[in-house]
Design a protein that fits this description.
It is built from seven helices and nine strands; from the N terminus they run αααβαββαββαβαβββ. With 280 residues, the protein is of the alpha/beta class. A hairpin with a 2-residue loop joins β2 and β3. The relative contact order is 0.11. The C terminus is likely disordered.
Length: 280
C-alpha cells in the first residue's frame, strides 16, 4: 500500500498549508475572504482525491496479500505431497495417484502396470558408508529412474529405499522390457557416494491390471510387492513378474544384467543367480 512518494508529498504539503490558513482565519475576527473559501474548497477536493488514492492503494495491497497467501498455500501443499530427499511424490501423494490411475484404467479399459522396487542390501550400505551416503544414493537413484520413464508414468517414493512406478497404457511385453531397462540402468550408474569399484543394484517386481475384472488399487500394489519378494529370493538385481502379468508375457525368465566383472554391489557381494525366475 505505497502511494507514489512525490504525489504523497504534494498532497501532504497542500493539506498542511490549508490547515494553517483555515486556523489563522478562525483565530481572527475578520470575515473569510472569497480567496480563502476558494482555497478551502480546493483543499476539500484534494482531500477527497487523496482518500480515493489511499483506498485504491489499500485495494491493491489486499489483492497482493491474497495472491501471496495463495502462493504460500500452494507451496505448503506441494511440500506436503513431496518427498524432500528425492523430490518425488511421497507415499501419500503416490497412493492418490494410484487411485486415479486405477480408476482411469477401469474406465478406459487400458492396462496399467505397477513396478515395485527397492535397493539391494541398502541396510548394509547405510551401516558401512553411514546414512549420509545412503541419502545421497536415494536422491541420485530418483534421477536415474526418472530418465528411464515417460512423462505419463508416475514415479514415487513409497518409503525407505522402496519406490513405486505406475505405467499407464502399456502392454504386458513392454512392462518386462521397461523393468529390465530400469534395473540395468541402475547397475551401470556410478553413485558418487560409493567408491569407484562399487555399484548399486535394485530388484523389481511387476504386476498388471486384469482386463476381465476391475482391480482394487491396493491389490495392484500388493501383487507387485509379492513379485518383488520373488525377485529378491531369486538372487536380486533382476525382475520378477507376478502371475497377473506373467500369463500375458509367457513362461521363461528375465536374465540379470551382465555387469562388468570389476564391479561389485555395495554392501557385500550379490548372490550369483544368473537368472531371476518369474512367478506364475
Amino acid at each position: 500500500m505505497e502511494a507514489h512518494p512525490v504525489r504523497r508529498s504534494v498532497l501532504g504539503l497542500w493539506a498542511g498549508v490549508s490547515a494553517i490558513l483555515v486556523a489563522a482565519s478562525l483565530m481572527t475576527d475578520h470575515e473569510a475572504t472569497a480567496t480563502l473559501w476558494l482555497w478551502v474548497g480546493a483543499s476539500a477536493l484534494v482531500l477527497v482525491a487523496g482518500l480515493a488514492i489511499r483506498v485504491r492503494d489499500l485495494e491493491r495491497f489486499i489483492v497482493r496479500g491474497r495472491e501471496e497467501l495463495k502462493r504460500h498455500h500452494e507451496r505448503l501443499q506441494e511440500a506436503a505431497l513431496t518427498d524432500p530427499m528425492t523430490g518425488l511424490p511421497n507415499r501419500r501423494h503416490l497412493m492418490e495417484r494410484l487411485d486415479q490411475e486405477v480408476a482411469r484404467s477401469d474406465r478406459s479399459g487400458a492396462p496399467l502396470a505397477c513396478l515395485f522396487l527397492d535397493v539391494d542390501g541398502f541396510a548394509e550400505i547405510n551401516n558401512h558408508y553411514l546414512h549420509e551416503a545412503g541419502d545421497s544414493i536415494l536422491a541420485s537413484l530418483a534421477g536415474v529412474l526418472r530418465r528411464q520413464l515417460r512423462s505419463s508414468d508416475v514415479l514415487g517414493r513409497y518409503g525407505g529405499d522402496e519406490f513405486v512406478i505406475l505405467l499407464p497404457d502399456v502392454e504386458a511385453a513392454q512392462v518386462e522390457a521397461i523393468a529390465t531397462r530400469i534395473y540395468r540402468a541402475v547397475a551401470r550408474h556410478r553413485f558418487r557416494a560409493l567408491p569407484p569399484r562399487e555399484n548399486v543394484t535394485v530388484s523389481v517386481g511387476a504386476s498388471l491390471t486384469c482386463r476381465d475384472a476391475p482391480m482394487v488399487p491396493a491389490e495392484l500394489l500388493k501383487t507387485a510387492d509379492e513379485a518383488l519378494y520373488q525377485a529378491k529370493e531369486a538372487g536380486r538385481n533382476g525382475v520378477a513378474l507376478h502371475e497377473s502379468l506373467a500369463v500375458h508375457v509367457g513362461s521363461g525368465s528375465v536374465p540379470s544384467d551382465e555387469l562388468d566383472s570389476r564391479n561389485k554391489p555395495a554392501g557385500g557381494p550379490r548372490p550369483s543367480s544368473g537368472r531371476v525366475a518369474r512367478t506364475g
